[in-house]
Design brief:
Keywords: DNA damage, DNA repair, DNA replication, DNA-binding, DNA-directed DNA polymerase, Exonuclease, Hydrolase, Nuclease, Nucleotidyltransferase, Transferase. The protein is α/β, with parallel strands linked by helices and 945 residues long. Helices cover 49% and strands 11% of the residues. The chain is built from 36 helices and 23 strands.
Amino acid sequence: MAERENADEAADKAPVPDPVTDEVNTERHLILVDGSGYIFRAFHALPPMTNPAGVPVNAVFGFTQMLANFLSKHAGSHIAVVFDASRATFRNQIYDQYKAQRPEAPEELKPQFGLIREATDAFCVARVELDGYEADDLIAAYATKFAAEGGQVTIVSSDKDLMQLVGGGIRMLDPIKNKPIHAAEVMEKFGVMPDKVVEVQALAGDSTDNVPGVPGIGIKTAAGLIEQYGDVETLLSRLSEIKQPKRRQALEENAELARISRRLVELDRNAPLPCPIEELATRAPETGRMLAFLKLHGFRSVQHRLGLDASGDLPKSRPAGPAPAPVALSLPAEGAGFGPYETITTIDALRDFADAARAAGVMALDTETTSLDALNASLVGVCMAHAPGKAAYLPLRHEGGDMLTPAPEQVPFDLAMAVLRPLLADPAVLKVLHNAKYDLEVLGRDVNGGLEVAPVDDTMLISYSLDAGRHGHGMDELSRRHLSHQPITYDEVTGTGRGRKPFALVPLDEATRYAAEDADVTLRLWHALRPKLREEKALALYENVERRMITVLRDMEVAGVKVDGPALKQTGAEFIERMAALEKEIHEIAGEAFAVGSPKQLGDILFGKLGMQGGKKGKSGAYSTDAATLEELAASTGHPLPRKVLDWRQLSKLNSTYVEGLQAQLAADGRVHTDFSMAITSTGRLSSTEPNLQNIPIRTEEGARIRRAFVAEHGHRLLAADYSQIELRLLAHVAQVPSLLEAFATGQDIHARTASDIYKIPLDKVDREARRRAKTINFGIIYGMSAFGLAGRLGIGAAEARGIIDAYFAQYPGIRDAMERFKEDARTNGYVQTPFGRKLWIPEIASKNQGLRGNAERAAINAPFQGGAAEIIKRAMVRLPAVLKAEGLAARMLLQVHDELLFEVPEAEVEATTPVVKSVMEGVAALSVPLAVEVGTGHSWAEAH
């Protein structure tokens, strides 16, 4: 996305001093665009996009945006786009494994190669390629010759291999960061000046291109060696001076590989020039041809940027002629201030802003509303930004305080929507939001006919894809962290407590100062964070999973799930009756009446009157009676009171949270609409709030009673699809335990097989107790459970528990190795990774506090499995709606709870829907063991299990 953002932003700003061209002789200035490199960057950076014919064109769009920027600014007296002509080059004759490991281009990209060449021709820009040579070699040859003739060269690329060319009139422009690359930037990356880059690359190698280098030598070490010895050959001739034995041995054994690597990385400055330099001169475009190409692919924003009207005419202000006077490449202004911002109060101003957003191709969007509940909030205003510092607030429903202060001037709501509707749906304008799901729900519900917003990027999810578990992902926190800017708070403009005023009553100047800043900050965060997705290898996770979840969860929240109110009320009455009976039993056991819900009174009974051991007082002087303490007392003393109190608390919580809570949250449609939080957990799992539907007990009768109240609409059934033992399957996959792999592959009872393995008894002789113990350790081991924890779970001594764990690891050494590897990864890198590559940060792993560090180690063990399970079910969720629609099925996905998905299905389609859901869910990931999904249906959620 960075290519698009920087090119568009530059085109919309007034020219500013440019370090790339300030020093150049603009009378002869050659711009060489690394076309092959740009294609891949644009493809992965831009969201999926198709032209009217359905052909993928996101890379083509990004490419044309860039060309439009250069040509609209008349940058350079000469310009050419350089492409790779073929995969095989002279380097493959030197080393047959060169680039051998590179995968085929994605299917969606393949048709775009030819279209990008067509775009180059349509813009009347010279196109250069030559069989047997890479684009980098041709760039080197043209740049060297042009600079030798006294001209200046700008290479538009961020390819590190081209950095060896910098100097002597040759500069680079990084199209991702839109910043120049001089010798200082090369020195920062490689630790040497440009003329020594090939020497460092020869030693360090390059895994991307399969350049071997010398094993064990990285960039830093290579730079130090070249700094000392000057070049590779001198180094190899003086190996006896290397003091480190392993390093000297590596260099001796791989000397020839280092020489081969140097030949591979050095660009051919004497490569043939397919086109004479004079044919690269900037030409006036054939506007009819350019317009035809842009219209064919639906690139209206590029057409707008170039000022082309429907006839293909350019604006009269544009200079004509075969070689327009070159001007500087404009880069985004550094350090644009946060405000002042525009308040849009007229339709003309709104249209002007929409035109600017279309020209930019990207805009930040935010809403100001009356509530944090998206399904009940009303729209008060819209905040937008099309470039850093270029933000505005569109008030829509601001009110007057009284008769003396009437409502301020605003664009009429329906008229404003008529302008916003096509802009927000324009596929050529990327909309950037923070927590997009909320805004999409508001705009889809509170506007007649709904407002479609697409395509969408979400800075909250970009941050979450990069840094799950590392820090929070709220906009204010990210602004402080990445922009060093503290945004204005909501409290500052509305007040607090009883004095807080609705946002609709905030004066427009204050509302604009606060609201427009949100859009400005969001856009700047996008500029800062979007490029990091590629750098941190998180782009696929974001694009294929997190971003696609936005609309999936929006639709689930809007759908909600039906609740049988009378049945829920009856359940509540039964819970209250049982609580009263438990309370009576508790009082009889204690020998006196007391408030069971009072921790202080309970502590006094347990540790005072009954004299139980192990009581710990907190700062208030009261004994701790949390669930862990009561569980420990129940296990160690055998006294019935702690267990009875735990049962009472469970019923009390269920009644208050799910009986009373659900009744309070029933909407007018008879359904509850939970809010799925997308960026809260450290493992990638979703969380559910208002109401929280993920903490209903699964295996208790009380939990089943709650689930019976969740029902299907008339004529429908609920379908529950649950991944079976998904974390254990991931454990077998990661640890590669042969017996567990076999058990899952053949459909054996995994817990019985574990018991058979660790107790050395035949599978058919495993009894219930042995299986129970195996099940406890199978699940406990994923959470880093200790011998003490296992002893408490099984009601056995610590020594016996330690013996079970030792036997487990002796039978499955791969599991112990995996656990140790996860902990070491966390200590070394600060994060662990799921089997699919997602980074999960473990901040407390280096804590000096032993308790915190121990918790972090357990989190490091568990996170890859929880995170892997989360990604698997998310992959299923993003695929299922489209598959169901393609099959002509009307099933709606309603809930995601842990490893389970809940659907509402027309009764006539249950039989057809079941295999589709099962097939998609079981096919979303290729593991060493099969994924298994259990499917059930029923009138209620409980019946579906």
